Amino acid sequence: MRMTEGLEAVLTPEQMRAFERAAFANGVDPLLLMEDAARAMYGVLEPLMKERGCRRVLVACGPGNNGGDGAAMARLLLRDGYEPLLLAADEPKTASARAMRAYYEALGGAVISWTERDCPEEREREIAGFRPDCVVDALFGTGFRGMPEGRYHRIIERINGLSSPVVFAVDIPSGMNGEDGSAAFDTDGGEPVCVRATHTACLGCWKPGLFLTRAAGCVGEPQLVPIALPEEAPRTELRMITPAAMRWIRPRPVDAHKGTAGRILMYMGSAGMAGAAAMAARAALRAGAGLVTVACPREIIPVLQALVPNAMCVPAETLSERVPPHDVLAAGCGLGQGTDALQTLKMLLARETGTAVLDADALNLLAENPMDLPDKTVITPHPGEAARLMRASAQAVLEDPLGTARELAERYRAVALLKGHVSLASDGRQVLFQRRGGPALAKGGSGDALTGILAALCADRGIVTPGEARERLLYKAALASLWLGLAGERAQRAWGDRSALTGEVVDLLPEVLAGGPV
Length: 518
Description:
With 518 residues, this protein is α/β, with parallel strands linked by helices. The protein has 2 domains: 3-7 and 27-236, Rossmann fold; 258-462 and 471-509, UDP-N-acetylmuramoyl-L-alanine:D-glutamate ligase. The protein has 18 helices and 18 strands. The chain has helices at 13-25, 30-52, 65-79, 95-106, 120-130, 150-161, 209-212, 274-286, 301-307, 339-351, 361-368, 383-390, 394-399, 401-412, 446-459, 469-499, 502-507, 509-514; strands at 7-9, 56-61, 83-88, 110-113, 134-138, 166-170, 199-203, 221-225, 238-241, 263-267, 291-296, 312-315, 328-331, 355-358, 376-379, 415-418, 423-426, 431-434. The strands form 2 sheets. It has an 11-stranded mixed β-sheet with strand order 1-9-18-17-16-15-14-13-10-11-12, sandwiched between helices. A 7-stranded parallel β-sheet has the order 4-3-2-5-6-7-8, sandwiched between helices. Strand 2, helix 3 and strand 3 (83-88) form a beta-alpha-beta unit. Helix 11 packs parallel to helix 12 (383-390). 49% of the residues are buried.
């Protein structure tokens, strides 16, 4: 398969506008493109409305093309027997938006205009009296920045105060910036001044702001909605990995054996933290590793042998004399940060000729002690670990995850996988977004499982990835995160968002690989 089948472009708002301008320059009529976009979004919206029994739809429209998309959707709703009410926060300012608004009104569509001269309380009473069971948010586009002011602020508050089961955002929730996800926060309650969507239909290509935002609860369920642009999307260094990428993992040849399936050395575990090493080893084996050897303190070997009988164990104290043969070194889970751990980790990294995967305490040791890393290294920090590696605050990391992922990769000359609600894998230039997962993964052990999966993928010769060695590591880092995320979603469906255990998530890895609903 082609790699592009598992990757989707992520374009900044300016890149998307340039993409559209190129289409217009080649003869595409902007009005036809708006109609195509509206019909594509309507195809997503109507099944949601039918599923939830929605009839009355408030369509909030701003003055730009986003509002034009909303007016076109209002017309389609009117055509199909729904009860749309177009809330016009301003007069349309583009020719296409004016045409769509006029077409809707010509068919008898109802409109409420909310201008600066209107009484806000009266308009709010009209909206409340309409009692919408669905809202279409078409106020602002992806280029919006700053704080919504005046009536726009009140309209957003009113939308958020409704109990509509469907709040459908056109391209991005209004109030959120499409490039960096920034949104203003109310000084009173600390809430984002942003439409709280249940669903967001992202037009044409993903926008990075949807996944970088600190107001993630406002995005709801994002869905990419293709539109008929006649050109290829521009080359971008930002992409989204999708479940189709699971097909990068090819079936094993019939003559495969444990030696060809990948050998992993795990330097992990300490007194009281044997479970972290066991979880990583178990995940590596479930993800296909042929041989896993755990190097750990002698006293916890009986625990590990009981928890993961398929893994071999050697006393960490013997590593200075003999390092077991391996293709990948994985280190850090439950390791501790003592002097012995530091010296042994330095020795292993100095000798490593294969791939190194570093997590948890290995990252904490790296943050405080300069080390030469192997040419092929992946670091997998969460925001707290990233902050220590960057000598920055966790707040700074959370405010700029994209820049953090790139800078981590450049500073440590490694592939960086910054874990989070949306994880970012970077080689310093390219960034792959990974958005699958969920609250079921919010448990100790998820990072250990990810380390094991990633180590197994790095050791596996049957992964179809292009490019040079470091770029292949980039794809495998994102793929490991995707695999864990999809298994987490299955675990959440089975046990809910609180009760799934990491071991149960790991045991669902084969189901994800086998395919089926995602």
